[in-house]
Amino acid sequence: MNNKKLKIAITGGIGTGKSAVARFYEKQGYTVISADDVAKDILSNDLSVKQQIIENFGKESFKNEKPDFKYLANKVFAVSRNVKIINGIVHPPTIRKIKLMMDEALEKNNLVFVEAALIFEAKMEDLFDYIILITAERAKQIERVMERNKISEEEIIKRMENQLPENIKKAKSDFIIENNSSLEELENRALFVLNLLKNIAGQTEKFSK
Fold first, then answer.
1. ∠ CA 1-10-44 to the nearest 5 degrees?
2. Count of domains observed in the chain
3. Residue 139 sits in a domain of what CATH number?
4. Phi, psi of 133, deg, nearest 5
5. Parallel, antiparallel, or unpaired: how do β-strands 175-178 and 66-67 relate?
């Protein structure tokens, strides 16, 4: 039986636990591409992108040639129009890079994962065969992010408001993993979904390191 090559997105709102699922899949031997890391790399090193960011948000957007993420976050998340502007600049080259990275990973394994918060907002869903949505109760999301990032509840809510409502994401996703209890429970659910995906791929896979 021919194995299928599957591209799978891991998405979810801020503080839902998508990074924990991504780390778990990495531990299982799979490539997991972080869209956030790709975007940060492009923001730091793509001269065309840097120029567009400065034109739209000012030269304060960069300190010592590196992006000032705190300044950009304050500038961008304060105004929804700014979110659209920065996404319009950064998303296209990020998507191109992710496509290349996925194709590269699938030369070695049958499954590749991409962790990205804005799959639907960036209209990236057509890049993937399956989408896994990680969800959590709103209070838990806020608590986790406040503890992790040391930012205010108000700032977190602003970021949440710039993402699609969860009911829309659920309707567009293939698998939903709830994360309202322990890390062990989250990993058990993630493993269940992984086994389903391996079966879909017809996979008896030998990993190439």
1. 120
2. 1
3. 3.40.50.300
4. -105, 125
5. unpaired
